[in-house]
Amino acid sequence: MKRLTVSVGQEDAGRRLGDYLRNPMGCSKRLVSRLKNEPQGIMVNGLQVTVRYVLAAGDRVSIAQGPVRPLTMPVERRPLEIIYEDDFLLVINKPPQTAMYPRYRGEAGALSGAVLGHLARHGEPLGYFPHYRLDRDTTGLAVFAKSAWAAARLAGQPARKVYAAEVFGQVPAAGSLTLPLAKDVGGLGRIWAHHAGKPARTCFQRAFYTDDRLFSGALIYLPTGRRHQIRAHFAQSGHPLLGDRAYGGPLLHHAHPALHVPYLQVAHPYDGRTLSLFHPLPASWSSSWPPAYRKEAPYVDYLTEALCRCASPAQ
């Protein structure tokens, strides 16, 4: 089993192991609890010890990097488009019409099966730790931790994502949608604006609109993360996503909601450095997008602006 090992510095001598696992190692309370119950889950200098152990300078603290709970999802041999991979992270281009999780135990076809299959082929511990969820038909960059420890480190540092969308009509040059969102009482799984809903804020910037003003392209940043937030907010503003039949969007040239994650920044769980990752817009999208948007620079610029203009969630 793969392990993560660090050496204790003089500044941490005299601390209890449990405190050290939380900070600076970044283990969550839940992860520490699970590791305590796993054989050789937590070791110091090659010996299994309790979290009450008092550390000395030079001690080597080691934790298991494998899964710490039984795997209940199928492992499948399906191809993945890998954008980035190392010992701690896997980043892929998520295809459309693919759910992140199976709907029921043993169901095939979810993204989880393909990720687990990739790990199995390369002799990696089998664990499924998505950093965030994307809707079934949303495409683009999806980040996965390769261990519970890496997942715990990522949990405190959300990825900064830029979405791209094609929406009905001509949207304003830039704006912010702040309607509170709640589940549809009709039980159809949709999300709608409601005064008693959860605060939500969707910031956007128009990239183009067609000459006939039939549809627009937009870049989007979310200070909040609600279910179907982008789809619900744009539908409520009169500009549903193309292909989004659930929210009244016309199909035009899309068979599913036109929503993609082309760019993100995420702090690496091991050393904290910022990873900037990019994947172009789908080839099936409109040729009306200006050529610059086929490259990374406009998304970097928009994220920089959005982090200043949209830093705080809706109140």
From TrEMBL:
InterPro entries in the cross-refs: PsdUridine_synth_cat_dom_sf, PsdUridine_synth_RsuA/RluA, RluA_PseudoU_synthase
GO terms, biological process: enzyme-directed rRNA pseudouridine synthesis
A molecular-function term among this protein's GO annotations: catalytic activity, acting on RNA
SUPFAM superfamilies tied to this protein: Pseudouridine synthase
Highest taxon above the source species: Bacteria
Residues of the Pseudouridine synthase RsuA/RluA-like domain: 89-236
Reactions this protein catalyses: a uridine in RNA = a pseudouridine in RNA
Family: Belongs to the pseudouridine synthase RluA family.
Protein known as: RNA pseudouridylate synthase
